[in-house]
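Exam revision sheet. Question 4 asks you to relate a sequence to its structure. Input first:
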Amino acid sequence: MTTNGVPDSYFTKAEKGPYTLCSLGDNGMVGRGAAAYVVDNLKAKNGVFFLPDYAYGRFAFGGAEAILKQRPGVKYNVVWSPVGTADVTPFLIKALEFQPDFKSAKGPAKWRVDGRPQYKYNSWIVEGKGPAARKHPKWDYAKIIDVYAGDAFLPTVREMGW
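Answer key, structure tokens:
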């Protein structure tokens, strides 16, 4: 059992062992979900993916690119952040040079001095379905009924010594 960081091929019939599973799915899910949301819901026509240059980022971009190739008329670029990069400023500047449309699924964000993004919507409040209303007994979709836009998710920059 793995927890994270696996490619799509991990789940192919030819590769998967009979008792193999992954609790978080594959990394491509991250890219597919983000790309579909930004293009389909936010109607972006020009996007930039800023991803870490190691297996996680590569597999996430593979998922995003699979979705984007199915969406004609959408331009996209990727900017890779090398492993161990302490200052991502030049990479962010490069991403901005592509002039992306880029809200994210969490809404607009700003970069804090400590290097963390502070999103407008940090989390969603969802309403699930009871067992009788579900189409599948173990999972189903939830309806977003509210968002939390507060800043309680992050310690203040002052608390971080800035």
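Marking note for examiners. The chain has two domains: 28-104, 106-162.
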